[in-house]
Amino acid sequence: MRRSALLFLLLAASAAGANTPAPGRYDGQFCVTVASDSAAHCGPAEVDVLRDRRLRVRISDIVYRLRLHSSQVEVVLMHGTMQIDEFVAAYDWAGTVLQFDDIDKRTRYELRLTPRKPAR
Fold it and tell me: Model-level pTM?
């Protein structure tokens, strides 16, 4: 029984990791929806997918540092060297779209990745 439970946990963790894109730089669209506002506010983002299931999402001078675990994401919001916020949330990664919610702030986040366009 213990072996089957351990095997299930390992398979679930590896399946969650299989959805993350390959390490590299991506262009992205980052959307934030606040519960009191029905419309999502979206804008461009520069995204670095790093090893160890970490992401760095830059929007102007704000950086979201994300660390994905099997079912939760650690989110640290930075402005330069100052930490602005930190929370842990359940997430869903389907294809090139990552979604997670900050339940305390009633806020939903969505990140859509696209391959980075070559510089001209």
Answer: 0.79
